[in-house]
Hints:
alpha/beta; two-stranded parallel ribbon; single chain
Amino acid sequence: MPDPLRLHFTDLLSEARQGRLRTMVGRETELGQLLRTLGRRVKNNLLIAGPPGVGKTALIEGTAAVLSREILPTLRTVPMIRLDTAQFASVLRQTPALSLLGRIRRALASLPPAVVVIDEFGALLNERLADPWDLEEIFAPFFRRRDLRLLGTLTDEEHRTSIQGHSRIEKYVEVLHLAEPPSDVCVQILTRAAPLLQARYRLTVSQDVLRRAVELARQLPSGRAMPDRALQLADEACALCAVHGKASMSEEDLHTVVSERSGMPTRSAARQDRRRLRQLP
Length: 281
């Protein structure tokens, strides 16, 4: 029977060479920390902790892009493989816990030297693996082998409740806390995404509007962090323009989306309402 762990791996370096991964903007400092950790002889496992939408996956994909182009001495010929956590989590629900843990441990131990990416590591923690003993079973192959490295992501809350204070895990695993990028980096990220939005919705988006999107995104009552919150606002405003057949996105479109999602009129939206009232017979 094929091992479920192997069935859900993809080669990130291959995807990076094919241009299928997102381009990372900013995060040079964090990228340097990540590469140094993976290249160490000991304690070369890393978990990236941060709120949803802060760019944890983008940092991992940016790392794959760097490794696909450059041969770093300590990571030469090391593959980077990603576990499809969402699909694999469904396997967790269908397999007896003890049997599954043994299979995961054996599958990881049999892998060749590699960087094993477990994006949204919290998805596994939130299934049936939150017990400290279960966690040690998952981490054991990374503890015992220096040529097998873990690179995972989870939220700050998942780190606090499942990892922090677990002395054996903290002995072998570094944690990189990812904060929201500054506004100028968020604008750069939106600028990089603008051609995709313009092609998708067949309209134009100016740099001034993108800067305003970053400013207004901070007013949105969203569970997502920046820059995702700004990306979602720009995408929704573009969709609004497309529905109304507009050739370009304006600041007023952003205000309309913010007003609808927050339930409170922005100054621009209020001006539009007053204008409509004056036009009533």
